[in-house]
Design a protein that fits this description.
This protein has 22 helices and 20 strands. The protein is of the alpha/beta class and about 600 residues long. The chain folds into 3 domains: about 80 residues, no CATH class; about 170 residues, 2-enoyl-CoA Hydratase, Chain A, domain 1, CATH 3.90.226; about 230 residues, Alpha-Beta Complex (2-enoyl-CoA Hydratase, Chain A, domain 1). Helix 3 packs parallel to helix 4, helix 3 packs across helix 12 and helix 21 crosses helix 22. It is globular and about 80 Å long. The two termini are about 50 Å apart.
């Protein structure tokens, strides 16, 4: 009876997926793929309040749920708007909290590009409230022609502060033993498990990073706000004396005008004619195409770096850099004779050394094929994110991009003692060498296991050092001095040779043209590799998901009907739970 019900369920599921859901996906994908007609006169609306990813991740349901906004969407739209006669002005809605500093710097540069084309940019804020990075939001607003604030709103831009939660005292109290290795003292990811406060190195690196970001953002604001001439030091003194009301911020020359958002909208629309329409930046991008006589490939990489391959994210989800997919994108660009250079857009906190090295070899293959690779760093390109960038022909980063972190960590949390206090006992058995059970959650590393893990981490760290030394043309001793797991801002990284130029995506485009010997006045066509923008790619992904789902359902039916298989499934589930417990902080080089 159980098997019969499962079979009926599988048939009904298959019927729904293939005769109702998938045709629906196909229809809406075709509808979504149709390009709208651009109005003859527009004010471009850029609403930053929903938050930004670094890179665009479209799905076939964007027309229903709304496409998420990315830094690249905004920057490309503003860059195109500067030379588009249909765009008369730009209206930016600022977030009430913070945003990533590197994203703010890149959007600021794009805003200034629009203003250079003699087009008005109005930014409106309904309040700037205490947040770790609200300074970045203010920097975007300050770059506009006019910065408006809603009357009686808050201007709480006074600096940058952050806090970390440390677990050591709780671990000591409850019998949890953090078994960690780090290379070296600035690789601070494991410090909250090992200490109850910042170490001197942790404090030094964090204050240096925050100070660099603060200096970069306040210098930009001092340059962009003309109401009262102040250098960066004078501006910081005024900000740090806050917080203020919007009215006081106006009096101090920190903003341009007070007004409701509908008033700012009306002012922006007045820069056109009576038929000027407000157009969302995402809709504007759908109307824009990249064209040119020379092709430059753009390979996007956002998220943690892992081995394997995937499919277009038809139903959303967190971004990942999968080594098979990213490497294939490089080899596809290499095989296309029309591609003269490659821009590698990287925004990643890191990942595994094996996945990173696979991608790094693809970067090298492109260079060996005579196609320069220019890395454009987004919010961050640290650890594994720097590993995949190190061998590029050139590296471009925003001043506040977080990069470097050339280091390794690994370990586990031994929770056996903690569980025993609640009457739970973990016991391990196994065959083979002593190292086979190294990551068991119930006990600490043996001296031999610890020595093996330490040796492995040393090997990965040395490989990282050599990778950077060769890619950046630096002496290994120099790299060891600036490595040790330390995170640098883009501006700091440029001074020590880890970054070549400061700037955003279009700075990388200019560098690609230079290295590929393309003349400055030649218009280039930017082509994404791989192209996941097609709704048909997402449709295929959905079909694959449906097929895999039916296979899994069939397997589930077999497992539930076989007593022996059911016992195996229980053991697998139990082992997986133990494995997850053991790998709370399993070997992660980055």
């Amino acid at each position: 009876m159980k098997q019969f019900l499962i079979t009926v369920g599988a048939v009904l599921t298959a019927f729904f997926l293939f005769f109702i859901a998938l045709p629906f996906i196909l229809i809406v994908s075709i509808a979504a793929a149709s390009k709208p007609v651009a109005p003859s006169s527009v004010t471009l609306l850029v609403d930053l309040r929903e938050g930004l990813t670094d890179q665009s991740r479209p799905t076939p349901f964007d027309f229903i749920t709304g496409k998420s906004l990315s830094t690249m969407d905004v920057v490309q739209a503003l860059h195109n708007a500067a030379s588009d006669p249909k765009v008369k002005s730009v209206l930016i809605r600022l977030p009430e909290g913070g945003m990533m500093p590197a994203a703010a710097e890149e959007i600021r540069a794009a805003v200034l590009h629009v203003r250079k084309a003699n087009k008005t940019v109005i930014a409106h804020s309904q309040g700037l409230y205490p947040d770790t990075l609200v300074m970045a939001s203010y920097a975007v607003g300050a770059s506009a022609s006019e910065l408006w604030m809603q009357p009686r709103s808050a201007f709480h831009v006074t600096g940058i502060a952050t806090e970390s939660l440390f677990y050591k005292r709780a671990f000591d109290k409850y019998g949890i033993s953090p078994e960690m290795e780090q290379r070296y003292e600035y690789k601070n990811a494991v410090n909250p498990y090992l200490y109850s406060d910042f170490t001197p190195e942790h404090r030094e690196a964090t204050l240096s990073m925050l100070g660099g970001i603060y200096e970069s953002l306040t210098s930009a604001v001092a340059q962009d706000r003309p109401e009262k001439k102040r250098d960066a030091a004078a501006l910081r003194a005024v900000l740090e004396a806050g917080p203020y009301s919007a009215e006081k911020a106006l009096e101090l020359g920190l903003i341009t005008k007070l007004g409701q958002v509908h008033e700012a909208e009306r002012e922006a629309l007045s820069k056109g004619d009576a038929n000027t329409a407000l157009l969302d930046v995402r809709d504007y991008n759908r109307m824009s195409t990249s064209s040119g006589s020379v092709t430059i490939a753009v390979i996007n990489a956002e998220g943690p770096i892992m081995t394997g391959k995937g499919v277009p994210q038809a139903f959303g989800g967190d971004a990942q850099i999968l080594s098979d997919d990213t490497s294939k994108a490089f080899y596809d660009a290499i095989d296309n004779d029309a591609v003269k250079a490659i821009i590698f857009r990287v925004s990643s906190p890191g990942g595994t050394d094996t996945a990173s090295e696979q991608i790094a070899q693809a970067v090298k293959a492109a260079k060996d094929a005579g196609k320069p690779v220019i890395v454009s760093m987004g919010d961050y390109a640290a650890s594994g994110g720097y590993w995949i960038s190190a061998d590029a022909s050139a590296i471009v980063a925003n001043p506040s991009t977080l990069t470097g972190s050339i280091g390794v960590y690994g370990g586990k949390l031994a929770i056996g003692d903690a569980l025993s206090r609640f009457g739970l006992d973990m016991r391990q058995i196994g065959v083979g060498g002593d190292y086979a059970g190294a990551y068991a959650a119930g006990k600490e590393f043996t001296p031999a296991q610890k020595a093996s893990i330490s040796g492995w981490i040393d090997q990965v760290y040395e490989a990282f050092i050599q990778k950077v030394a060769k890619g950046r043309n630096l002496a290994p001793e120099k790299v060891r001095d600036i490595a040790k797991g330390r995170v640098w801002t883009g501006a700091q990284a440029q001074k020590i040779g880890l970054v070549d130029k400061l700037g955003g995506f279009y700075t990388a485009v200019d560098e690609a043209k230079k290295l590929a010997k393309i003349s400055d006045n030649t218009k280039v066509k930017l082509v994404n590799y791989p192209n996941h923008n097609s709704p048909f790619a997402a449709f295929g992904a959905a079909a694959d998901s449906a097929t895999n789902g039916l296979k899994a359902l069939s397997f589930f039916g077999w497992a539930m009907s076989d007593p022996q298989a059911e016992a195996v499934m229980r053991d697998v589930k139990r082992a997986r739970m133990q494995e997850e417990g053991a790998n709370v902080l399993a070997p992660q080089p980055y």
